[in-house]
Design goal:
The complex is a heterodimer of chains A (386) and B (401). Chain A is of the alpha+beta class. Chain A is built from twelve helices and ten strands. In chain A, 51% of the residues lie in helices and 15% in strands. Chain B has eleven helices and ten strands. Classes of the chains: A alpha+beta (386), B alpha+beta (401). The interface between A and B is large, with 52 and 50 residues. Bound molecules: flavin-adenine dinucleotide. Residues 128-132, 137-138, 163-165, 215, 366, 369-370, 372-373, 375-376, 379, 393-394, 398 of chain B line the site of flavin-adenine dinucleotide. Chain A: It comes from Natronorubrum daqingense. Chain A: Belongs to the acyl-CoA dehydrogenase family.
Chain lengths: 386, 401
Amino acid sequence: MDARLTEEHERVQETAREFIESEGGTDLARRQADGENVVDDLWDELAGLDYTAITVPLEYGGFGEGMVYLAALLEAAGRYALPGPLPETAAVAVPLIRDLGTDDQRSTYLPSVADGDLRLSLAVYDDETEPLPGSIQMGAERLGEAETAEFRLEGTKTLVPYAGETDVVIVATRTRESQGYDGVSLFAVETDHDAVETTRMDSLDWARPMYEFSIDGLTVDEEALIGPLHGGGSALVTAMDRFSVAGTAMLVGAADRAVELSAEYGTEREQYGQPIGRFQAVKHRTADMWVDMQGARSLVYYAAWALDGDEPDAARAAAATKSFAADRLHRVFGDDIWNHGGMGFTWDHDAHIYLKQAKSWRNFLGSPEANRDRLIDARLATERNR
Amino acid sequence: MDFSYTDEQETFRHELRAWLEENAPEGWLEDPELPDDDAERVEFLRDWQRTLADDGWAGVHWPEEYGGRGASLVEQTIYREEMARINAPPQINLIGINLIAPTLIEVGTEAQKQRFLPKILSAEEIWCQGYSEPEAGSDVASLTTNAEANGDGEWLVNGQKIWTSYAHVADWCFLVTRTDDSGKKHEGLTVFLVEMDQDGISTEPIHQPHDDRTFNQVYFDDAVASADLVVGEIDRGWDVVMTLSAFEHGSTSIYSIEQRYLALLEYCRTETRNGTPLVERDRIRQQLADFDARIQAAKATHYRNVSKQAESGTPGPEGSMDLLISDELRHDLLNFAVNVQGPAAALWENGHNAFDETSGYIRSYGAWIAAGTGDIQRNIIGERVLGLPKDNKSKTSHRSE
Ligand SMILES: Cc1cc2nc3c(=O)[nH]c(=O)nc-3n(C[C@H](O)[C@H](O)[C@H](O)COP(=O)(O)OP(=O)(O)OC[C@H]3O[C@@H](n4cnc5c(N)ncnc54)[C@H](O)[C@@H]3O)c2cc1C
């Protein structure tokens, strides 16, 4: 056992930090929030650094790395709330295609992802108020009984991250009357298709925009079906677990930065003739922020490792990660605002960027409450023979 | 990054597990109960520790030359996990084994090691830690218990210690005294190894809220400390004090907390209220799940700390994080365990329920004070990890230095 990041992981983090800082750090998120599309340029650079190739298997021109490596990178990206669908592409779409795709699908998509020519996202919700899996309602109707089937997709998906800045969206549909994750099939849909429209939503987190994704009667053939017909549900759940862990890795990076900002301010800012960090109300709050951040980081690392190794408790670890981190890290960002006094409550301070990210992340792909339900069910199922 | 155990480490686990199957006190594996009677309990615990020591399972983290097993940090983690799994009886000489011996191994003389270590291991000599005084707890360096050389190669100790765990059964005390009060508070301290069974020392048990009497007041009235039993140097005891404190912060009780959690889960699964199992109530499910996530986080954090320490060699301030996390987790869990008892929470030992954590819940308040309070741990993290300025009062005093 050596539960630390390897030197290679740390090196990747360091180069990523240097690169993002040289690009302006959180300014990238600010520009994206101002409506500028920074993703295109940024993506070329990320591809130049091979970051887009990390999870792509070796035979398709990637590095064949898993969630641990990616989480290390995303932690560095999260320090600056780096815009762009890197979690969606590298943590969600690539493993789905790698694990479920046909040879054709792999050789169509994966090398382009590695080269930085293709970005992907995931569409699960049909409704912004219904939780998953109930919100998966869009149907994909099978046309005819021919050997090579065709499917007709129709309807609107919502809350699709970065849909307007991606080339392909993996869409969760129902292909037979069913409930839960049973009867779910996944289709890869190209965003530049005439029948497809993406509309940017008024997102809480301006830097990581959500989109509506409308399909106005689109016929696709079997080549668009990722994984088994009716049987994509369990792979989707694992994909969402990867997404959860990846997103939390970014928040951990942000929280690490927030603690750093609070600690720096605590040594510089003086009130009543002394640095405010000498007041234990501030010192202890900052210490608690650090402890919560470390707890979330430990869970991210463990879950990433468990997902990579297909450990029996991988899903439980992912559920623990989201349920532990969502509200605690949100509080870390709030405490960072508080520690900075009036300065903290300004557009110029970074705390609000992180805070919004944490809040919009909270219920996405499963609230902490929903994840706690999953967690306890899993625990009750295994605890006897532990 | 690798959270898995190597084959070698798993072998260690299985060896220990097999040994426990064979050697756990009779009936313990089915029904882990300590004798009620104080004297019987002490005898029982001494026996247990001797049994452990005889087969090399008492001080697993000690070097082999002193009778330990030279276990790596990961093996120590496995050791704690396995001991928690069978809810093993505590080691009565815990302070000797976990705090005093490692300190002696690091800074004691060879003669001191030869003289004391074997008997610590076998529990032939039980130890206590004489730090706190009525006016000096968190602020250990403000202590006043005084030691003066009498010219015959001996030192005479006068003063009072308090909250001294196990002093009533201890044979020796790791005693911090003031030998010079002309300088700064943390200068002029000296650590002695002092024999408890002498005329100059008397102990008086303090009654604790959970009804036990495991800590004491200790009075020194011209007690004799031998000059060759100084640890480190005269007037330079602060470093020794800090060495021991690092060991005090550098372990975790997360595995025993996890065992309690699993017992609580089992209770909530089988116990019904108005015909519904507790675990099916949303509020209770959510809380149980949150504890589960916190325990997973604490364990993974501990693994990360251990991995870091395995390389750096010394327990760093991360120990304060382990301590803080597990103290609060234990308390919150036991508090919740009492809450789910329903009206029976009004009872001390509720005969109707198979699950009773009342005294554990009361005891948990002591745990988060004992090795330095949560406030002190937060100071350590704030100052030593995050680089925040030291508060004026703590600059030269409290345990965090
Ligand atoms: C179960 C138990 C077993 C113990 N066993 C031993 C033992 O074997 N040997 C031994 O020597 N001692 C032992 N102790 C004593 C223990 O180490 C002290 O109680 C502890 O260090 C706190 O000191 P105090 O009791 O004097 O409280 P104080 O130091 O007076 O603290 C009172 C309150 O003030 C806060 N406070 C104090 N200083 C600061 C500061 N700088 N910043 C912020 N807050 C502060 C504390 O957090 C606490 O809330 C034991 C205590 C307990 C409860």
